[in-house]
Design brief:
three-stranded antiparallel beta sheet; 518 residues; eight-stranded antiparallel beta sheet; 3 domains; alpha+beta
Length: 518
């Protein structure tokens, strides 16, 4: 009796799907399940970031938003006949190649972007260009699944600091700014990474994009709303930082810090989001019941026909998707095994006019060189008593957990008292940073990377060089060199480092000789 009662319900559910869509939806489901399974590690890393990082908590609702966007188009989509499309395999190849580059170089953003876009490419390949046009915005919104935004933190810190100091002066509070540090009568304030406002900017861009699509038809109004969605959280974050300083002047730093955590968190920016929607509401020009797409118009449009000449059967296209994905996984596995041979022992050489001495730092500074196969740390002093700290790291390969350009690696070690203060005066081929600890100690550090015949400071170029090596199975080591000096009453950091560089051999040859490279 129970089986007979359930059978009509299952039939009724199947009848709700147009016959022309049943097989393509099954094929798409198989393609997505396969992509999720093959790139499960990347999806697990993304989900962990969505859950653990407050910058990306908003992404937890993005899958539901995409599902809602598709559901809103469902009855119009039923009027379009999906058709598998061979060129979709080229899109998948591009997506998986991006994933491959990220996977072999330890660039999580690239590998995660490839994992996400592989689903978009599979959708286009299985359902064809007409359906892809109808689903253009939901497919585009899928890019918000990729956790990006932390790269903006340094720039946002500086912008917030400039807004804060302007408002501080305007409110009559005497203050001095030095990089991201603001010195006031009641204490020294830092616009730290957590105060950059990146989490609210990233969330607001995702929200603004959705609202601009759902609530507006005019592209001009959409563009203006997006400008507001970007500018408003940046300005609001500056007001937030200024408010903390302003309250601290009368109520004390501890009270201001507590008030900041209670009110100036999501409560404050919830009000900012409400203000954005309130300002934009009166200009909404899309009707509540207005359709997002016209299924009949898309089904009858002539322009997709020029692309549909390359349509094919769904099952062979699905097999092509699987073959491409497995090929890329095999390529990645082989490429990850490419590593340069390492010498058993290396050592820093003598430098004319300088003597190796025991470290005597005013405040401990130790750059992170996680995963380096060889790491050398030493201090050199000259006859004038000037001291230079040298950090040398040699890597057989660059990948996640052992890359010179990874987050928190290099001259500015994470989870320490050291903070980035400003750029140091430029030196050819190097990136220079002025660092500060506890508002008292300052030092200058210059960083070079060496790979093959190239020496420089471009992290992007280093990553590209390592990607190329692994793609072509050509193992070459990577070197990171950091030289640093304290800025004290007895020595000027930049002058000390310039004197040290003049005493060494040309840096490319000097770095290669330490690694015992020909």
């Amino acid at each position: 009796m129970q089986l007979e009662a359930l059978t009509p319900q299952r039939a009724a559910l199947a009848e709700r799907i147009a016959p022309v869509w049943r097989k393509p939806l099954l094929q798409l489901a198989l393609a997505w399940v396969g992509m999720f399974a093959l790139f499960a590690a990347d999806w697990a890393a993304m989900v962990q970031l969505w859950w653990d990082s407050s910058t990306y908590n908003h992404i937890l609702v993005v899958p539901a938003i995409i599902a809602w966007l598709v559901w809103q188009r469902a009855h119009q989509l039923a009027r379009i006949a999906p058709q598998a499309w061979w060129p979709g395999l080229l899109l998948l190849f591009g997506s998986l190649f991006v994933w491959l580059l990220g996977d072999i170089s330890g660039t999580a953003t690239a590998s995660q972007l490839g994992a996400v876009t592989s689903l978009q490419a599979a959708t286009i390949a299985v359902l064809g260009p007409r359906v892809a046009w109808a689903l253009l915005f939901p497919l585009f919104y899928g890019f918000f699944l990729v956790p990006v935004g932390d790269e903006l933190v340094p720039a946002l810190q500086m912008i917030t600091a400039e807004i804060t100091i302007a408002l501080t002066h305007a409110s009559g509070i005497p203050a001095l700014i030095d990089g991201v540090f603001i010195d006031t009568p009641v204490g020294l304030f830092e616009v730290a990474e957590a105060c950059s406002g990146v989490k609210f900017l990233v969330a607001m861009v995702a929200l603004g994009t959705l609202v601009a699509h759902v609530c507006y038809r005019s592209w001009t109004r959409r563009a203006l709303f997006m400008v507001a969605a970007i500018v408003l959280p940046i300005l609001a974050n500056g007001v937030r930082a200024w408010g903390t300083i302003y309250i601290a002047q009368s109520q004390g730093v501890d009270f201001a810090a507590g008030f900041d955590h209670i009110f100036y968190g999501w409560i404050f920016f919830a009000l900012v989001m409400a203000a954005l929607l309130g300002m934009g509401w009166r200009f909404f020009d899309r009707g509540f019941d207005e359709e997002f797409i016209d299924g009949e118009a898309i089904a009858g449009a002539a322009w997709p026909a020029r692309f549909e000449r390359w349509s094919g059967s769904g099952w062979p296209v699905l097999a092509g998707l699987a073959l491409l994905a497995l090929t890329m996984l095999g390529w990645a596995h082989a490429a990850r095994s490419v590593e340069a041979d390492m010498p058993q022992v290396i050592d820093l050489p003598e430098v004319p006019g300088w003597t190796r001495v025991n470290p005597a730092q005013s405040h401990t500074w130790l750059p992170h060189t996680t995963g380096a196969d060889h790491k050398l740390i030493a201090s050199y002093a000259d006859e004038e008593g000037r001291v230079v700290d040298v950090v040398y790291a040699l890597y057989a390969a660059q990948e996640d957990g052992r890359e010179a350009t990874g987050f928190g690696e290099g001259a500015l070690p994470s989870d320490t008292d050291w903070r980035w203060l400003s750029d140091a005066p430029p030196v050819e081929g190097a990136i220079g940073d002025r660092l500060q600890a506890l508002g008292t100690y300052q030092r200058v550090a210059y960083t070079w990377y060496r790979h093959g015949d190239w020496i420089g400071s471009s992290r992007a170029r280093l990553k590209l060089a390592n990607m190329a090596d692994r793609l072509l199975f050509a193992p070459r080591p990577t070197i990171m060199l950091i030289i640093s000096a304290e800025d004290t009453e007895s020595q000027h950091a930049e002058d000390t480092l310039a004197a040290f560089r003049q005493s060494t051999a040309p840096l490319p040859e000097w770095m290669d000789a330490i690694a015992l490279l020909d």
